[in-house]
């Protein structure tokens, strides 16, 4: 397995946005607590060491990283809560919200989300690149958040009276989750600047990340494949869906990545393998400035005409896939500019049940274009209003109709 496979293949999310759904790669480091320290102090030292060995900027530009370790240990650390607070304070000067500690409950919830199950309101969160505010990347389909009309770009101001600016990304996500039947109060600002106050009831959210069906466009039959996040089950489900659609003699494919906030990069790469015959999928730059290019397998499952839908909720692993399809001229992108999350996090399990996310690399599209803070520009911008909620992917979805029209144009050429 080469370095890129190691850094990217075991990537765990978000999940950009949901949360959730951020993108993670996994490198393994053995935690060896110092015998001279208590377990709680050793946890702080382990986190410092792991970040020191993996962080994308090895020089920690402008941050006195070595001094922060000593400063953290000068505090009274007698309980796990003390250790978590010391770690949060130690990581804060990095000003990287994606390099963060996940307390045991949050870490277990994140693991559940990568396997396709979660209990909450169904919001995938990210950080607004310009302001760092907690923002909705996308609501999960058929979730309480989607039913309430929350859309991508909505600013999440408070949760149960607590400011998200103080909670941070993971704290906000953790507070949204909870036992089925309980409720959570939100104060939000819509993309149009309207203030909303609402209560949502938490419930099990069926992520169901892959959906497919046939589309009729005049005398032609197309396939529709929607991927709402990249979890462990997605590659197998996508392969099954593509084979099933081709058995029904489709003449073209609409790939829908709208509101896909990311997830496991390995799952996104596997889908790219199904669609790109041996072409470069992504370029990754590691902490040593070394760039490596990940190529798709020579064989594909589907090689026919296709177009891809993206929007402001398309982030992280889905931007890797969309950028690969666009740069290799495999598929035109239609819709709106994507979210713009082009950094990779590794997720490390700590000995006490908590987890550590560390930004370890940045990725570029095959043509060398950055994604972080920029996003993907579609080949064809589609006009507002953008389809939301239950209309997404339905026969009333005007963007889907535009994608079908583009496929008809391809067939006529």
**Highest CATH level, the class of the largest domain:** Alpha Beta
Question: Which descriptor suits the 3D outline?
Answer: globular
Mean pLDDT, all residues:
86
User: And the CATH topology of the largest domain?
Assistant: 2-enoyl-CoA Hydratase, Chain A, domain 1
Task: Name the poorly predicted regions.
Answer: 1-35
CATH superfamily of the largest domain: 2-enoyl-CoA Hydratase, Chain A, domain 1
Largest sheet: 6 strands, mixed
The end-to-end span amounts to 42 Å
What percent of residues adopt helix (DSSP H or I)?
A: 25-40%
Could you say which structural class the secondary elements and strand pairing correspond to? alpha/beta
Indicate the proportion of strand residues.
25-35%
Family: Belongs to the peptidase S41A family.
GO biological process, one term: signal transduction
GO cellular component, one term: outer membrane-bounded periplasmic space
Pfam family, one: PDZ_6
